[in-house]
Specification:
The complex is a heterodimer of chains A (225) and B (379). By secondary structure, chain A is of the alpha/beta class. Helices cover 36% and strands 27% of the residues of chain A. Chain A is built from seven helices and nine strands; from the N terminus they run βββαβαβαααβαβαββ. A six-stranded mixed β-sheet of chain A has the order 5-6-7-3-8-9, sandwiched between helices. In chain A, strands 2-1-4 form a three-stranded antiparallel β-sheet, with helices on one face. In chain A, α4 crosses α5. Chain B is an alpha+beta fold and 379 residues long. In chain B, strands 1, 3, 4, 5, 6, 7, 8, 9, 11 and 12 form a ten-stranded mixed β-sheet that branches. In chain B, β7 and β8 form a beta hairpin. Chains A and B meet through α2 and α3 of A and α1, α2, α12 and α15 of B.
Chain lengths: 225, 379
């Protein structure tokens, strides 16, 4: 599937359902995202935002339709692995950090998956931690961190292997208003300074409107705004 | 591509030790399971091999062939008549032959003591370190019994005193230190007195034969079996491998050891299953972060192998400690002289690793098949 110049992520007539087709979640969804764009998928819980992110990130496969993410086809197993390793970074509502590990150890997990080398991993961990303002916490365990610091660490983990795309699923959903705004500002900085493409699923309209572009997700369908 | 994947899998294994460190109690239970298996197998096999070794040593002191009754289930039931002993002794290829009668006797508080009926010229008397009495005294006076040093200790017997052996009372004629645990924990009677005591006049259990030239062994064996149809002659090694009691002992000890390992394996399987089920979300996060199915499987197997390795070290230390203590337990009468053969040690290492890997196969398979999307929803 060849894409127009600058399109990094595209979905064409993608559908996904669960429970043997009885629970449709996405219906004929089409979407195109340019490199360096910050796109919000805005919608209520259960509208299909997370499912779309999972399909784009190679965590799940569509029932029908075509997908292309950074030139890879997430319907193919080998492409899905490559996507998760080097092309896409995930940030979840619940940070999903590994308990009992230090921040440095959590950040280095994606590097272990791609055999980055110990010295290079340490250097990259330091670099990412400084960028996100958590370098002073590298030796601390997850349970010693605040909610904001945990989410920063989760963002750092997503950035470890220098992905082109970050898929953020309600990254501010479990944070208080002020911390949520700080985390959102951080994501925005990544797009503006590092040229990362960000697709953000959120139910908060103010964050959706603060993105370059947002689409409304409702009952598994997208409405461009 | 495959080689690159293997390298990637190796690097991700650094998480193995991190995970074991995080779940110390769980890992310790797995280590303990393997350690007990290793210790049990090591102890049992070392004791059995030691016992077999001691028994072999009794039989083959300064000899190369054993002559005994054909088709007996145990040498205690073997009967070699005096005239056959003489016939074997006088064969031209035989340099020396010593008849020996085995029996079990009891003394108050000690129901099982091995009794050896031997002739005064038996080489073991010459090789022994005499603590009391003299070798020349053996068989010189009737009604005398000679004790291994260990037997003298547990029977609290001193030279010149009398001790009750079964219904008979004997005077202690001498005490000597024997290198062999069975002999050192046993009592010795002159062959003729032993025959009378056990109501087996004119018979011995075995004849230990030393040849003038070992290359004549095959001819000797054929001649004995031709001239004495009720007897069989076996070379030392041949005897050790074919003797039923040794085979049963070896098989039983391996079976008990394997059972101990099976229990250890169940412990590892349980530990690894608990470990995987308790970390489903975490394993899903690893998948999200780019871990392949192969890497996740290797991670779980790696944890199991690390547990087995730690269990091996701990179990070996534990088994060695038990083996070091056993000879000092008075109730064992000095019968335990453990022997660890290299083959047994290798077998134990192999069993420990095999057990751990077998116990981890299902958990590893389960972990590698975790679907990230479903697992991230898992509470």
């Amino acid at each position: 599937m060849s894409e127009p110049y600058g399109i990094l992520v595209s979905a064409r007539r993608v559908s996904k359902s669960y429970d043997g087709g009885r629970v449709p979640v996405l219906r004929d969804v089409s979407l195109a995202v340019r490199a360096g764009e910050m796109l919000a998928l805005w919608g209520a819980s259960g509208s299909g935002k997370s499912t779309l992110l999972h399909l784009l990130g190679g965590l799940d496969i569509p029932d029908t339709g075509e997908l292309s993410v950074a030139g890879f086809d997430p319907r193919r197993e080998r492409d899905r692995l490559e996507l998760r390793r080097r092309q896409v970074g995930f940030v979840f509502q619940l940070h999903n950090l590994i308990p009992d590990l230090t921040i440095a150890e959590n950040l280095s997990v994606p590097a272990l998956a791609v055999n980055c080398g110990a010295a290079a991993t340490r250097a990259r961990v330091r670099e990412v931690a400084e960028q996100l303002g958590i370098a002073h916490r590298l030796g601390h365990r997850v349970q010693d961190l605040s909610g904001g610091e945990r989410q920063r660490t989760a963002i750092g983990r997503a950035l470890m292997n220098s992905p082109r795309i970050v898929l953020a699923d309600e990254p501010t959903g479990s944070l208080d208003e002020r911390t949520g705004e700080t985390v959102f500002a951080l994501l925005r900085t990544l797009v503006e300074q590092d040229g990362i493409t960000l697709i953000l699923a959120t139910h908060e309209r103010r964050f959706a409107e603060a993105c370059h572009r947002w689409v409304h997700v409702r009952d598994g369908r997208l409405t461009e705004t | 591509m495959r080689a690159r994947n293997d390298v990637e899998a190796m690097r991700s294994l650094s998480l193995v030790f991190t995970n074991l460190r995080r779940h110390k109690l769980r890992a310790s239970i797995g280590v303990a399971g393997i350690a007990f298996g290793v210790a049990a197998m090591l102890t049992i096999l070392a004791i059995v091999n030691g016992a077999i070794g001691m028994f072999e040593h009794i039989l083959v002191t300064d000899s190369e062939y054993l002559v005994f009754e054909k088709n007996v289930s145990d040498l205690f039931f073997s009967s070699v008549r005096d005239e056959d002993v003489v016939a074997v002794k006088t064969r031209p290829e035989v340099a020396a032959a010593h008849a020996m009668l085995f029996g079990i006797v009891s003394s108050p508080g000690y129901p099982v003591i091995t009794c050896f009926g031997i002739a005064a010229d038996d080489p073991r008397l010459e090789k022994a370190e005499w603590r009391a009495g003299r070798r020349e005294d053996f068989g010189a006076r009737s009604g005398e019994i000679f004790l291994g040093e260990r037997a003298a200790e547990f029977l609290h017997a001193k030279p010149g005193e009398t001790i009750a052996i079964g219904p008979t009372t004997f005077r202690v004629g001498g005490i000597f230190k024997a290198a062999n645990g069975f002999e050192d924990g046993g009592v010795f009677l002159p062959l003729v007195e032993a025959q009378a005591y056990f109501h087996r006049p004119g018979v011995a259990s075995v004849v230990a034969v030393k040849l003038r030239d070992r290359s004549e062994g095959a001819a000797f064996k054929r001649a004995v079996e031709a001239e004495h149809p009720t007897l069989v002659a076996l070379e030392d090694r041949e005897f050790s491998q074919s003797y039923n009691s040794f085979r049963i002992l070896r098989a039983t000890s391996w079976a008990v050891g394997v059972c101990a390992f099976l229990l250890g394996g169940l412990g590892v399987a349980n530990t690894m299953l608990m470990s995987v089920f308790g970390r489903i979300r975490e394993l899903a996060v690893l998948r999200v972060c780019g871990f392949s199915e192969r890497q996740l499987g290797a991670l779980i197997l790696g944890e199991a192998v690390a547990i087995a390795a730690a269990g091996l070290v701990l179990g070996t230390a534990l088994g060695a400690a038990v083996l070091a203590l056993l000879p000092h337990v008075p109730q064992l009468q000095g019968y335990v002289q453990a022997q660890v053969h290299p083959g047994v040690a290798l077998g134990i290492v192999g069993m420990a690793l095999l057990t751990a890997v077998a116990g981890a196969i299902y958990p590893a398979r389960f972990a590698s098949r975790i679907q990230p999307v479903e697992a991230l929803r898992y509470e």
